[in-house]
Amino acid sequence: MSLISHSAEWAALTQHQQSLAQTSMRELFAANPLRFEQFSLQLDGLLFDFSKHRITSETKDLLLSLARQAGLPEWMQALKQGEKVNRSEGRAALHHALRFRPDSGLPLTGDGIHAKILAVRQQMQQFVQAIRCGERLGYDGQAITDLVHIGIGGSDLGPRLAAEALRPFLTGGPRLHFVANLDGGELARTLAGLNPATTLFAVVSKTFTTLETATNAQSARNWLLQSSSAANVSQHFVAITTNRQAAEQFGVAPENIFAFWEWVGGRYSVWSAVGLSLACGLGWEGFEAFLEGAAAMDAHYFNTPLDQNLPVLMALLSIWYISFWGAESHALVPYDDRLARFPAYLQQMDMESNGKRVSTEGVALDHASGAIIWGEVGSNSQHAFFQLLHQSQRLVPIDFIVSARPSHSLPDHHPQLVANCLAQSEALMWGKTEAEVRAELRANGLPEEEIERLTPHKVCPGNQPSSTLLFSELSPYTLGMLMALYEHKICSQAAIWGINPFDQWGVEFGKQLAKKIVPELISPHAATEHDASTNGLIAAYRRYVEL
Ligand code: F6P
Prior knowledge:
Helix content: 40-55%
Largest sheet: 6 strands, mixed
Bound molecules: 6-O-phosphono-beta-D-fructofuranose
Number of strands: 11
Low-confidence stretches: none
Shape: globular
Strand order of the largest sheet: 1-2-11-10-8-9
Number of helices: 22
Strand content: 5-15%
Structural class: alpha/beta
């Protein structure tokens, strides 16, 4: 199969970009007073404004033709039906099935998948209730007060983000803690404030072989067992994994193992038992609302024509900038303290999914796929990296995310926060011309000589594109929608580029090399098998440790 970049639709977009590059968004807004109405969508309380983009109706049509030419509708159907869309690993990608409602009527192939999902959901629900009503006890008969979630990557980022974002909803359950890093500092800091008798560990690992998780779980186990001769692993550890045997070998009681399946990719797994800690914090109803929000986004994605389809439009906008304007990065700026971890979550979701160099058929791409995802909450980020967005020569598309209602009751803050969010997207699009700068300086009474000197420094070119996602409040339901929206957006990008968003062979390569270096750091013999830099660093480390 040939690459999508060799299609007539791709060529048409390349040509269209060249002509549109002569027109600024200011001009596009001036020419079309209905731009906001034409380029915004509303879905279940979520408003997506994409009018501040370098697009016209023609751009939208050409991008939609590209999606059709790339077979996106067929790919969406294959995803929904549980076909093996993860071609390099020969697996389906059924994360959307994890949030299915028994009454949703989603057709799925695959033996008993719904039954399996429902059985684990039931096991989770019982566990959540036992923890929250104090039935689940520690080794000396006290109720569990703290739950430490140990996992990394996809087994950490989603639940950690959701637990932080939904903090106001975490009532009546254990305190939640998350430990991912191989740096023992994170685990040590977490354990320092905890009582082993009332602490439960959830070891979350699809493979149950990931170095970071295995090391942290082992140290947590030692900490627990050293606390008392009565302490035991079976009461204080649960495991969420596809590798039941390894979890049992670790000492987890069979009834405390929660299954998930190879057709759930790690970074798409928060909806499975990987979300158990979150469910313990939220309560079962809250967790179900989170799943329902995601299910609403699934229903929209699978049932809405492409030209009205929110994840598809977001995907096309990203492709537009990466493939046709040469944008290298994409910034995420949530104006919401609770979403501080959203950029980190999307970094894995997007960069691990779309950072690929060959098509699903193994053909080398002749265009970039994926972007560097970065960001930080507003308004903090205004005082950090916004200068570059306003005045450098770089093109950086931005997603602004903002909730109309805050989670707190400090009356003066929220309108100011929202105003800053809207002002930034306006300023970045509109810019400030040389004439405007001169007029402003003149109005301030500056002498002509000073105006001449300052003007070039104060000009802001504008034309920096952004989308704004506005919703009424950040609830479990809204967060579920938002996270599923980005999942579908990212996978749609992959489908149009013709790459596999569900594998991560590069990460596996890095893991292999680390395993080799561990023994070399403690061996009495000098390492000689690496490049000179790596050998030198190993030797230097050993010298420092010996000092
Ligand atoms: O980061 C690489 C990765 O393989 C992710 O895809 C995965 O989410 C993470 O490691 C953790 O893997 P596991 O859940 O098997 O411990």
